[in-house]
Design brief:
The protein is an alpha/beta fold. The chain contains eight helices and eleven strands.
């Protein structure tokens, strides 16, 4: 995915409030975990246009957003609210133990070199540091693999076909006027990869849409496809 060329379409799609997944499902629980951890130094890994960095700035004294797309970083700097750095998750331009919390807000899906990126997350986290992750459920990314996906029944209802769940594969999709690639990985991969790097799981949730008036509330809550997990290094 060339995020630099897609920057304008992404910024327009997100707006000030974010898309459905962020605004109505993930923002509140992600902010709550940051506030509870009370980090002094936070890195937003794959910060995009900087929206979440601006949201956490009231809770964290030192916020840095990192993204590989120059156009997105330029927009984030223009908006302000944090310090923004161009760079890749696989080669973080920071010293060891530089942060108390690293956040990945729907960005692990975009990283092809995930093993190296997780090594880097562990390196830049201080002892006792937290790794906060929001991610798409693996059954949802597996539903887009060839031979999978949504199908519509004769009665108008939809069914999800999940195929090749245990594979690691890039999945192309269309969103908000641009195309992108998400990397499907089974949930067991993330669990084993983080446990193997010395992280302990402190929190796991599949947040619901709580707004009773939202038209997507019932459909989403019937099959939530987003989750939040928080991991901690030993002190």
């Amino acid at each position: 995915m060339d995020w630099d060329n897609a920057a304008n379409a992404w910024i327009a799609a997100q707006g000030d409030d974010g898309d459905f997944s962020r605004r109505y499902v993930l923002d509140a629980p992600m902010l709550a975990r940051v506030a509870a951890a009370r980090p002094d130094r936070l890195l937003d890994l794959g910060c995009g246009e900087g929206r979440f960095c601006r949201m956490v700035a009231d809770h964290v004294p030192h916020v840095i957003g990192l993204d590989p797309a120059p156009s997105l970083i330029a927009h984030a700097r223009q908006r302000g609210g944090a310090h923004f750095v161009e760079g890749r998750a696989e080669a973080l331009p920071f010293d060891a133990a530089a942060f108390d919390m690293v956040v990945s807000y729907l960005s692990l899906l975009d990283i092809e070199g995930i093993e190296t990126a997780l090594d880097e997350v562990r390196r830049v986290l201080a002892p006792g540091g937290h790794f906060l992750v929001a991610n798409l459920a693996s059954f949802a990314t597996a539903s887009n693999i060839t031979a999978g996906g949504w199908i519509r029944r004769a009665d108008g209802a939809r069914e999800m076909v999940v195929a090749n769940y245990l594979q690691h594969v890039g999945v192309s999709f269309e969103h908000g006027g641009f195309s992108a690639t998400n990397w499907h990985r089974p949930l067991s991969f993330y669990m084993q990869a983080l446990l193997g790097r010395g992280f302990a799981l402190r929190h796991f949730d599949e947040p619901a849409v709580t707004d009773p008036t939202h038209p997507k509330r019932e459909a989403y809550n019937n099959a939530p496809y987003l989750f939040v997990m928080e991991w901690q290094l030993a002190a």
